[in-house]
């Protein structure tokens, strides 16, 4: 089986960083990914809103250097989570990132990070199982 996805999109909000009970960092990102397609004689656009999970030091770097509007390239795998809430079954498909590349700088393709100093162009990590 093969499960790999690569997407480029803009962050729709600042990353949310939290820590598991064992102290592992995990950041949640949400990106907007646009695409165009032809339907008959006209072109149509659609935007997908994709949730991304980023583990460990990579998640901490994303939280430190990324902010709403920043363009990123995310490489990882698709994962589906299922749970029950208020008696209803819920499910969510998201990307678990192996690599996050920061595209553009402040004023280029987004706002850039909230911290001073240069942001790395790429952070990669292997998430825990």
Could you explain how this protein is built, in words?
The protein is 8% helix and 57% strand. The chain is mainly β. A five-stranded mixed β-barrel has the order 1-3-4-6-5. Strand 3 and strand 4 (42-55) form a beta hairpin. The longest helix is centred in the middle third of the chain and has 10 residues, at 56-65. Mean pLDDT is 86; it is low at 109-118.
Topology:
Layout lengths: L4 E7 L4 E4 L5 E15 L2 E14 H10 L5 E15 L2 E16 L18 E3 L5
Parallel strand pairs: 4-6
Antiparallel strand pairs: 1-3, 1-5, 2-3, 3-4, 5-6, 6-7
Offer a quick outline of the entry:
This protein is mostly beta strands and 129 residues long. Helices cover 8% and strands 57% of the residues.
Unreliable sequence segments: 109-118
Q: What characteristic shape results from the CA principal axes?
A: globular
Helix/strand-derived category reads: mainly beta
The helix count comes to 1
Essential attributes:
single chain, 129 residues, mainly beta, 5-stranded mixed barrel, 8% helix, globular
